């Protein structure tokens, strides 16, 4: 796809920008904010697109320490740098960048010193602990910036910065070898990307979802097999296919994940990326006999996000999106929460911004 329309020079910009902030539960307010220079170690970004992710509930539904304090939601952000703060190296005005769920490591804590940037103990979360991308302008730590290639549009890149890297990294974290059977549980915002990545990474792919009507979508996305978990025991169905070397569990339901453990081959892994409100239950003997594992996987670092974008461009992986205008941000959030979106909702800023 062609690059997005260029962003105007910052000197020609207004001294204010628009942002949707939230307080309490779903109390959206469109406000004007003063444009400021970025703080030390940060950049200012003119936002082009921002994905609407289910994790936005943390801000919008008041699931944070102080819901009375206004915050701008959104963490699937793509735009262009228009100002660079002191102490920032390697980034320049005009760079096309993105940022996902993690807002940049501190490079000082124990986990950072060991290179485990995802588990940095001093890392902001855009859209939750600090302002995010439901705005014309975003300020972010330079350590969290992701270079976005020109070959992908902003509206396609935005969901890949969270949903994409989450499933891509989970697959790469498994021990599954070339041609191994890998199952993707769920065909929603995460799962529809997981099936594509699994196929393009060279696995034999089984898609697991509820309802026979989803079989066609699974095949279109690249699945070799479809398992209707409403009609069949998914664990038994996977065993009948030879057993899965890995299962990526994307649907936010512990009860739907639980039967999948029995469908793993010996040494197989259940990688959990869907945050479920109910517990995942497992028979300990199933883990012990066969050495099966259950693991969690949380998004990815900035450079891993760049790997994901590069692979997506090269392999032709793209999200299925519903694009809505910035002014419709509250309605876009409601659309995402309805579960009817196919499959990622994305806010797009006016080209003249």
TrEMBL record:
InterPro entries: ADH-like_C, ADH-like_N, ADH_Zn_CS, ER, GroES-like_sf, NAD(P)-bd_dom_sf. Keywords: Metal-binding, NAD, Oxidoreductase, Zinc. It comes from the Bacteria. It catalyses: a primary alcohol + NAD(+) = an aldehyde + NADH + H(+); a secondary alcohol + NAD(+) = a ketone + NADH + H(+). The keyword NAD applies. This is Alcohol dehydrogenase. It holds the Pfam family ADH_N. Gene3D superfamilies: Medium-chain alcohol dehydrogenases, catalytic domain (3.90.180.10), NAD(P)-binding Rossmann-like Domain (3.40.50.720). It is an enzyme of class 1 (oxidoreductase). Belongs to the zinc-containing alcohol dehydrogenase family. It comes from Mycolicibacterium chubuense (Mycobacterium chubuense). GO terms for cellular component: cytoplasm. Residues 24-347 form the Enoyl reductase (ER) domain. Its EC number is 1.1.1.1. GO terms for molecular function: alcohol dehydrogenase (NAD+) activity; zinc ion binding. Its cofactor is Zn(2+). The gene is adhT_4.
């Amino acid at each position: 796809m062609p690059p997005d329309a260029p962003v105007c020079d910052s000197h020609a910009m207004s001294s204010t920008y628009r942002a949707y902030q939230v307080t309490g539960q779903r109390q959206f307010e469109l406000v004007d904010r003063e444009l400021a220079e970025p703080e030390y170690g940060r950049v200012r970004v003119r936002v082009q697109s921002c994905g609407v992710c289910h994790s936005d509930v943390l801000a919008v539904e008041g699931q944070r320490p102080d819901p009375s304090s206004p915050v701008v939601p959104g963490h699937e952000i793509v735009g262009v740098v228009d100002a660079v703060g002191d102490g920032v190296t390697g980034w320049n005005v005009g760079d096309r960048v993105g940022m996902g769920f993690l807002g940049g490591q501190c490079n000082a804590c124990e986990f950072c010193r060991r290179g485990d940037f995802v588990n940095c103990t001093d890392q902001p979360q855009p859209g939750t602990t600090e302002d995010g991308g439901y705005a014309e302008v975003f300020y972010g730590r330079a350590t969290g910036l992701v270079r976005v290639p020109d070959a992908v549009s902003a509206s396609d890149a935005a969901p890949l910065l969270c949903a994409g890297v989450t499933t891509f990294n989970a697959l790469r974290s498994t021990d599954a070898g070339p041609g191994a059977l890998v199952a993707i549980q769920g065909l929603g915002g995460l799962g529809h990307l997981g099936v594509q990545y699994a196929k393009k990474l060279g696995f034999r792919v089984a898609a697991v979802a509820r309802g026979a009507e989803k079989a066609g979508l699974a095949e279109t996305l690249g699945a070799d097999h479809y398992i209707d978990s409403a009609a069949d025991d998914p664990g038994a169905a996977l065993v009948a296919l030879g057993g899965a070397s890995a299962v990526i569990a994307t649907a936010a339901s512990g009860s739907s994940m639980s039967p999948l453990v029995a469908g793993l081959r010996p040494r197989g892994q259940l990688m959990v990326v869907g945050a479920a409100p109910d517990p995942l239950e497992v028979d300990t003997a199933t883990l012990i006999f066969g050495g099966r594992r259950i693991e969690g996987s949380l998004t990815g670092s900035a450079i891993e996000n760049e790997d994901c974008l590069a692979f997506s461009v090269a392999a032709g992986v793209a999200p299925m999106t519903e694009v809505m205008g910035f002014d419709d941000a509250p309605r876009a959030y409601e659309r995402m929460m309805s579960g009817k979106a196919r499959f990622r909702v994305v806010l797009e800023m006016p080209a003249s911004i």
